[in-house]
Amino acid sequence: LSTLFEAIPAQLNSNASRYQVSGVLSGNRAGNILEDIAELKDSGTVLVSYHANDPNIGLSQNKDLTRFKLFTADTGLFVTLSFKDKDFTENDIYAKLLNDKLQTNLGYLYENIIAQTLASNGHDLFYHTFTNEASKRNYEIDFITTYNRKICPIEVKSSGYKMHSSIDKFSEKFSSRISRKILAYTKDVQKDGNVELLPVYMIQFL
Protein backbone atom coordinates (compact mmCIF):
# COMPACT_ATOMS: atom_id res chain seq x y z
CA LEU A 1 0.00 0.00 0.00
CA SER A 2 2.79 2.43 0.87
CA THR A 3 4.53 1.68 -2.44
CA LEU A 4 1.34 2.40 -4.39
CA PHE A 5 0.85 5.60 -2.40
CA GLU A 6 4.36 6.97 -2.78
CA ALA A 7 4.32 6.37 -6.54
CA ILE A 8 1.33 8.68 -7.13
CA PRO A 9 3.32 11.77 -8.26
CA ALA A 10 5.55 9.74 -10.57
CA GLN A 11 2.56 7.99 -12.11
CA LEU A 12 0.77 11.27 -12.80
CA ASN A 13 3.92 12.86 -14.16
CA SER A 14 4.31 10.01 -16.66
CA ASN A 15 1.19 11.23 -18.51
CA ALA A 16 -0.07 7.68 -18.86
CA SER A 17 -3.77 7.14 -19.41
CA ARG A 18 -4.03 5.16 -16.20
CA TYR A 19 -2.09 4.18 -13.08
CA GLN A 20 0.46 1.63 -14.31
CA VAL A 21 0.32 -0.96 -11.54
CA SER A 22 2.87 -3.27 -13.16
CA GLY A 23 5.43 -0.47 -13.16
CA VAL A 24 5.05 -0.06 -9.41
CA LEU A 25 4.37 -3.61 -8.21
CA SER A 26 6.19 -6.01 -10.51
CA GLY A 27 4.04 -8.87 -11.73
CA ASN A 28 0.76 -7.25 -10.70
CA ARG A 29 -2.10 -5.81 -12.69
CA ALA A 30 -4.91 -3.50 -11.68
CA GLY A 31 -7.40 -6.36 -11.59
CA ASN A 32 -5.27 -8.11 -8.96
CA ILE A 33 -5.20 -5.24 -6.46
CA LEU A 34 -8.78 -3.94 -6.45
CA GLU A 35 -9.04 -4.61 -2.71
CA ASP A 36 -5.82 -2.67 -2.09
CA ILE A 37 -7.14 0.31 -4.06
CA ALA A 38 -10.39 0.18 -2.10
CA GLU A 39 -8.41 0.12 1.14
CA LEU A 40 -6.34 3.13 0.06
CA LYS A 41 -9.53 4.99 -0.85
CA ASP A 42 -11.18 4.12 2.45
CA SER A 43 -8.13 5.42 4.33
CA GLY A 44 -9.09 8.96 3.32
CA THR A 45 -5.58 9.73 2.06
CA VAL A 46 -6.14 8.84 -1.60
CA LEU A 47 -8.64 9.91 -4.26
CA VAL A 48 -9.45 7.50 -7.07
CA SER A 49 -10.56 8.76 -10.47
CA TYR A 50 -12.07 5.99 -12.59
CA HIS A 51 -12.24 5.82 -16.35
CA ALA A 52 -15.79 6.35 -17.64
CA ASN A 53 -16.02 4.03 -20.62
CA ASP A 54 -19.21 5.61 -21.94
CA PRO A 55 -19.37 9.16 -20.50
CA ASN A 56 -22.99 10.01 -19.84
CA ILE A 57 -25.33 10.86 -16.98
CA GLY A 58 -24.93 8.10 -14.39
CA LEU A 59 -21.14 8.00 -14.68
CA SER A 60 -20.77 5.38 -11.96
CA GLN A 61 -22.62 2.89 -14.17
CA ASN A 62 -19.87 3.12 -16.78
CA LYS A 63 -16.73 3.20 -14.66
CA ASP A 64 -13.93 0.75 -15.26
CA LEU A 65 -12.53 -0.48 -11.95
CA THR A 66 -9.30 -1.59 -13.62
CA ARG A 67 -8.55 1.79 -15.25
CA PHE A 68 -7.96 4.52 -12.74
CA LYS A 69 -5.74 7.37 -11.63
CA LEU A 70 -4.69 8.05 -8.06
CA PHE A 71 -4.42 11.46 -6.40
CA THR A 72 -3.69 12.41 -2.83
CA ALA A 73 -6.59 13.75 -0.78
CA ASP A 74 -4.35 16.61 0.38
CA THR A 75 -2.36 18.60 -2.18
CA GLY A 76 0.18 19.73 0.43
CA LEU A 77 1.00 16.09 1.02
CA PHE A 78 1.21 15.62 -2.75
CA VAL A 79 3.90 18.33 -2.94
CA THR A 80 5.84 16.66 -0.16
CA LEU A 81 5.67 13.31 -1.95
CA SER A 82 6.74 14.91 -5.22
CA PHE A 83 9.95 16.33 -3.74
CA LYS A 84 10.66 13.58 -1.25
CA ASP A 85 14.35 13.20 -1.99
CA LYS A 86 15.27 12.83 1.67
CA ASP A 87 13.67 12.67 5.11
CA PHE A 88 12.41 16.26 5.00
CA THR A 89 11.58 18.78 2.31
CA GLU A 90 13.25 22.18 2.48
CA ASN A 91 10.95 25.14 3.07
CA ASP A 92 12.39 26.99 0.05
CA ILE A 93 10.74 24.44 -2.25
CA TYR A 94 7.33 25.42 -0.90
CA ALA A 95 8.26 29.11 -1.08
CA LYS A 96 9.30 28.82 -4.73
CA LEU A 97 6.13 26.89 -5.51
CA LEU A 98 3.91 29.54 -3.92
CA ASN A 99 5.78 32.30 -5.78
CA ASP A 100 5.55 30.49 -9.12
CA LYS A 101 9.34 30.19 -9.34
CA LEU A 102 9.71 26.43 -9.14
CA GLN A 103 11.14 25.17 -12.42
CA THR A 104 9.25 21.92 -12.82
CA ASN A 105 6.21 20.51 -14.57
CA LEU A 106 3.23 21.59 -12.50
CA GLY A 107 0.52 20.07 -14.67
CA TYR A 108 0.05 17.04 -12.44
CA LEU A 109 0.02 19.28 -9.35
CA TYR A 110 -2.90 21.28 -10.71
CA GLU A 111 -4.70 18.05 -11.57
CA ASN A 112 -4.37 17.02 -7.94
CA ILE A 113 -5.74 20.41 -6.84
CA ILE A 114 -8.80 19.98 -9.06
CA ALA A 115 -9.28 16.39 -7.87
CA GLN A 116 -9.18 17.49 -4.22
CA THR A 117 -11.53 20.41 -4.90
CA LEU A 118 -14.11 18.30 -6.73
CA ALA A 119 -14.00 15.52 -4.13
CA SER A 120 -14.30 18.02 -1.27
CA ASN A 121 -17.47 19.32 -2.86
CA GLY A 122 -19.11 15.92 -3.15
CA HIS A 123 -18.17 14.92 -6.70
CA ASP A 124 -17.03 11.40 -7.51
CA LEU A 125 -14.01 11.48 -9.82
CA PHE A 126 -14.13 10.28 -13.41
CA TYR A 127 -12.04 10.85 -16.54
CA HIS A 128 -12.22 9.69 -20.14
CA THR A 129 -9.70 8.86 -22.87
CA PHE A 130 -10.49 8.38 -26.54
CA THR A 131 -8.86 8.22 -29.96
CA ASN A 132 -9.87 10.47 -32.81
CA GLU A 133 -10.56 8.12 -35.71
CA ALA A 134 -9.51 10.62 -38.39
CA SER A 135 -6.16 11.68 -36.91
CA LYS A 136 -5.51 8.57 -34.77
CA ARG A 137 -4.51 10.96 -32.01
CA ASN A 138 -5.27 10.18 -28.38
CA TYR A 139 -7.16 12.66 -26.21
CA GLU A 140 -8.03 12.81 -22.54
CA ILE A 141 -10.66 14.67 -20.55
CA ASP A 142 -9.08 15.19 -17.13
CA PHE A 143 -12.34 15.19 -15.17
CA ILE A 144 -16.03 14.70 -15.90
CA THR A 145 -18.85 15.78 -13.59
CA THR A 146 -22.61 16.01 -14.03
CA TYR A 147 -24.55 19.27 -14.38
CA ASN A 148 -28.24 19.79 -15.15
CA ARG A 149 -28.81 16.16 -16.10
CA LYS A 150 -25.90 16.18 -18.52
CA ILE A 151 -22.12 15.89 -18.25
CA CYS A 152 -19.51 18.60 -17.82
CA PRO A 153 -15.99 17.89 -19.15
CA ILE A 154 -13.11 19.67 -17.42
CA GLU A 155 -9.68 20.16 -18.94
CA VAL A 156 -6.86 21.32 -16.62
CA LYS A 157 -3.95 23.58 -17.57
CA SER A 158 -1.08 24.60 -15.31
CA SER A 159 -0.74 28.05 -16.87
CA GLY A 160 -2.68 30.62 -18.83
CA TYR A 161 -2.67 28.34 -21.87
CA LYS A 162 -6.11 28.56 -23.48
CA MET A 163 -6.08 25.70 -26.00
CA HIS A 164 -8.69 23.03 -25.32
CA SER A 165 -8.35 20.48 -28.11
CA SER A 166 -9.46 17.57 -25.93
CA ILE A 167 -12.75 19.28 -25.05
CA ASP A 168 -13.27 20.24 -28.70
CA LYS A 169 -12.86 16.69 -29.94
CA PHE A 170 -14.89 15.33 -27.04
CA SER A 171 -17.69 17.74 -27.94
CA GLU A 172 -17.72 16.55 -31.54
CA LYS A 173 -18.31 13.03 -30.29
CA PHE A 174 -20.72 13.63 -27.41
CA SER A 175 -22.29 17.04 -28.12
CA SER A 176 -25.84 16.02 -27.14
CA ARG A 177 -24.66 14.84 -23.70
CA ILE A 178 -22.80 18.00 -22.65
CA SER A 179 -24.17 20.86 -20.52
CA ARG A 180 -21.04 22.93 -19.78
CA LYS A 181 -17.45 22.79 -21.03
CA ILE A 182 -14.78 24.07 -18.67
CA LEU A 183 -11.08 24.80 -18.95
CA ALA A 184 -9.48 25.24 -15.50
CA TYR A 185 -6.36 27.39 -15.69
CA THR A 186 -4.43 30.14 -13.85
CA LYS A 187 -5.82 33.31 -15.43
CA ASP A 188 -9.06 35.29 -15.13
CA VAL A 189 -12.59 34.28 -16.05
CA GLN A 190 -13.14 34.31 -19.81
CA LYS A 191 -15.14 32.60 -22.51
CA ASP A 192 -13.78 31.06 -25.68
CA GLY A 193 -16.82 30.26 -27.77
CA ASN A 194 -18.92 28.03 -25.52
CA VAL A 195 -15.98 26.92 -23.39
CA GLU A 196 -15.78 28.54 -19.95
CA LEU A 197 -12.24 29.47 -18.91
CA LEU A 198 -12.21 29.46 -15.12
CA PRO A 199 -9.35 30.10 -12.68
CA VAL A 200 -8.54 27.02 -10.62
CA TYR A 201 -9.98 28.47 -7.40
CA MET A 202 -13.46 28.76 -8.97
CA ILE A 203 -13.83 25.03 -9.54
CA GLN A 204 -15.14 24.78 -5.97
CA PHE A 205 -18.33 26.50 -7.11
CA LEU A 206 -19.32 23.89 -9.70
What does this protein structure show overall?
This protein has one domain (2-205). The chain is 31% helix and 26% strand. It is built from 8 helices and 9 strands. It has helices at 2-6, 8-13, 21-24, 34-42, 75-82, 91-98, 107-120, 165-174, and strands spanning 46-52, 63-72, 125-131, 138-141, 143-147, 150-156, 181-185, 190-192, 195-199. The strands form 2 sheets. Strands 5-6-7-9-8 form a 5-stranded mixed beta sheet. The protein is globular. The two termini are 32 Å apart. The model has no long low-confidence stretch (mean pLDDT 90).
The radius of gyration is 17 Å
- Biggest sheet descriptor: 5 strands, mixed
Major sheet: order of its strands?
5-6-7-9-8
The domain count comes to 1
By DSSP, the count of extended strands is: 9
Low-confidence stretches: none
Terminal CA distance: 32 Å
Amount of helix:
25-40%
Computed structural class: alpha/beta
Q: What is the N-to-C succession of helices and strands?
A: HHHHEEHHHEEEEHEEE
Shape: globular
Q: Which range does the strand content fall in?
A: 25-35%
Count of runs of 4 or more consecutive helical residues: 8
Give the mean pLDDT: 90
Keywords:
single chain, 206 residues, alpha/beta, five-stranded mixed beta sheet, four-stranded mixed beta sheet, 8 helices, 9 strands, 26% strand, globular
Any chance you could write out the topology, listing elements then pairs?
Layout: H1 2-6, H2 8-13, H3 21-24, H4 34-42, E1 46-52, E2 63-72, H5 75-82, H6 91-98, H7 107-120, E3 125-131, E4 138-141, E5 143-147, E6 150-156, H8 165-174, E7 181-185, E8 190-192, E9 195-199
Parallel strand pairs: 1-3, 6-7, 7-9
Antiparallel strand pairs: 1-2, 3-4, 5-6, 8-9
